TrEMBL record:
Catalyzes the addition of meso-diaminopimelic acid to the nucleotide precursor UDP-N-acetylmuramoyl-L-alanyl-D-glutamate (UMAG) in the biosynthesis of bacterial cell-wall peptidoglycan. The gene is murE. GO terms for biological process: cell division; cell wall organization; peptidoglycan biosynthetic process; regulation of cell shape. This is UDP-N-acetylmuramoyl-L-alanyl-D-glutamate--2,6-diaminopimelate ligase. Pfam families: Mur_ligase, Mur_ligase_C, Mur_ligase_M. Its cofactor is Mg(2+). Keywords: ATP-binding, Cell cycle, Cell division, Cell shape, Cell wall biogenesis/degradation, Cytoplasm, Ligase, Magnesium, Nucleotide-binding, Peptidoglycan synthesis. Meso-2,6-diaminopimelate binds at residues 386, 409-412, 460, 464.
């Protein structure tokens, strides 16, 4: 499959220097990934400027360049250059054109927010499948094409990778695709040129301020998905001020909006709720009608996710009775309040959850407390080379548990003890916590400290099966480690 330079940039403001009929065999934004006949995009990043790698790209076989300024190359007079104002936006638009605008071939649901994106995408996928659709999923846990799971490197891939993935989903016959849309991806224009059927907002709490710097900037990045650049039907959780601001903007723009939340003015909100150990039973008001739902997910925050997914499904035209039927058979979401198999007769319960923000941690602890008659013990840490300002707030949030075990969580290139010290700054003067930097030892310590009837929450890593330490990727899965430590403490699992 090839396209000409002129075809890729049709309708875009640009200056083509050279042969506009030059055939493009592929798209690349890293010079070390260039293949013969590729178009190389000179991306201006926060650390490096892709213009500096233009010559290397040419040497590796690139026959065309996209740049924000004229690039002067040695012995490359036959190279076609496309000069644009924004190379990231140009790359996204060209990628969509290269793969024949694949997002137009299915109904795409884009879900953004700090917490709940993964669970909501899985909920929408399951509902759509029960409704008879073949589905795709793009997100943190991985990508799925018609049920086949693949690992992913980013929550939302770079635009050439994203459009290629869309094309594979289209070609596999997917009719509904659900995607987590990160604030980074929106700010970096990875989704530019993508056609959404529905965009949804879950919530906004502290995270990624190392990148966005302020809450306002973080919100504005999320809000891009609800701007005129991405026309779609909207689903918005209005429990928080940020959601209400989004609703105001979308209403002013004349968008079709379904509101969700515990707020009684929301079009989808709960009337009655019973949180049980293994499921939730609720009566929802759905646009004026009473709807009874029962689903095998637990916790208040999962009810928020269910209501958002309900709104997305309605926006896709899926009937209410089909949505209710699908929710009743919802499978567990990897690493999202996932219960660890325990030996028969084990007196404690262990859950694993991805909660890695203060709000998510507080909600996960509250959910465990509502499910358990005993004490709640939480094991948690904070990632290195990420938003350090949330670390003491995470420490404060963890104090809601009866016992907190502070440990390491993907320290990357930071000293794990220094990260822990940042967390402890929010726990100063408090009791009810211990420190164990080794994560396996921390999990073992939590199990050893538990009494019959207690519940343990392992927070922060969820589905991840690795630990990032320096440049190393070490095998480590909270679920597996916890299962091993439970066996060590109580004997073989009930399945053995």
């Amino acid at each position: 499959m090839t396209k000409t330079c002129a075809e890729l940039f049709q309708g875009m403001e640009c200056t083509i220097i050279g042969d506009g009929s030059e055939e493009v065999a592929g798209l690349a934004f890293r010079s070390d990934a260039v293949c013969s006949g590729d178009m190389f995009f000179c991306i201006v990043g926060n650390v490096v400027d892709g213009h500096s790698f233009a010559q290397d790209a040419i040497d590796r076989g690139a026959t065309s360049l996209v740049a924000e300024r004229k690039v002067y190359l040695a012995d490359a007079t036959d190279v076609t250059e496309v000069v644009v104002a924004d190379s990231r936006k140009a790359m996204a638009g060209a990628a969509a054109a290269f793969y024949d605008h694949p997002s137009e071939g299915f109904s795409l649901v884009g879900i953004t927010g700090t917490n709940g994106k993964t669970t909501t995408t899985y909920l929408v996928e399951h509902i759509a499948e029960v409704a008879g659709n073949r589905c795709g999923v793009i997100g943190t846990v991985g990508n799925k094409i018609a049920g086949i799971v693949e690992k992913s490197d980013h929550t939302t891939p770079e635009s050439p990778d994203l459009q290629k993935l869309f094309a594979r989903m289209r070609d596999a016959g997917c009719t509904v695709v659900t995607m987590e849309v990160s604030s980074h991806a929106l700010d970096l224009k990875r989704t530019w040129g993508t056609d959404f059927a529905v965009t949804a907002f879950t919530n906004l709490t502290q995270d990624h301020l190392d990148y966005h710097h302020t809450f306002d900037d973080y919100f504005e990045a999320k809000a891009l998905l609800f701007s005129a650049a991405y026309p779609a039907r909207r689903v918005i959780n209005i429990d928080g001020a940020w959601g209400r601001e989004l609703l105001r903007r979308c209403t002013e723009a004349g968008d079709e909006v379904i509101t969700t939340g515990f707020d009684t003015t929301a079009q989808i909100h709960p009337l009655e709720v019973a949180f049980e150990a293994t499921r939730t039973v609720a009566t929802l008001e759905v646009r004026g009608a009473r709807v009874e739902v029962s689903y095998p997910l637990v916790g208040r925050f999962n009810l928020e996710n269910v209501m958002t997914a309900f709104g997305c499904a309605l926006s896709l035209g899926i009937p209410t009775d089909v949505i209710v039927r699908a929710l009743a058979t919802m499978p567990p979401v990897p690493g999202r309040l996932e219960q660890v198999p325990a030996p028969a007769g084990a007196p404690v319960t262990v859950y694993v959850d991805y909660a890695h923000t203060p709000d998510a941690l507080a909600k996960a602890i509250a959910s465990i407390q509502a499910l358990s008659a005993g004490r709640t013990i939480v094991v948690f840490g904070c990632g290195g080379n990420r938003d350090a300002s949330k670390r003491p707030i995470m420490g404060q949030a963890a104090l809601a548990a009866d016992l907190a075990v502070v440990t390491s969580d993907n320290p990357r290139h930071e000293d794990p003890r220094a990260i822990i010290d940042d967390i402890l700054a929010g726990m100063e003067g408090a009791e009810g916590f211990i420190v164990e930097p080794d994560r396996r030892a921390a999990i073992a310590a939590a199990i050893a400290a538990a009494e019959p009837g207690d519940a343990i929450l392992l927070a922060g890593k969820g589905h991840e099966d690795y630990q990032l330490v320096g440049d190393e990727v070490l095998a480590f899965d909270d679920r597996q480690v916890a299962a091993e430590e439970l066996i060590r403490a109580f004997g073989e699992t009930e399945n053995d």
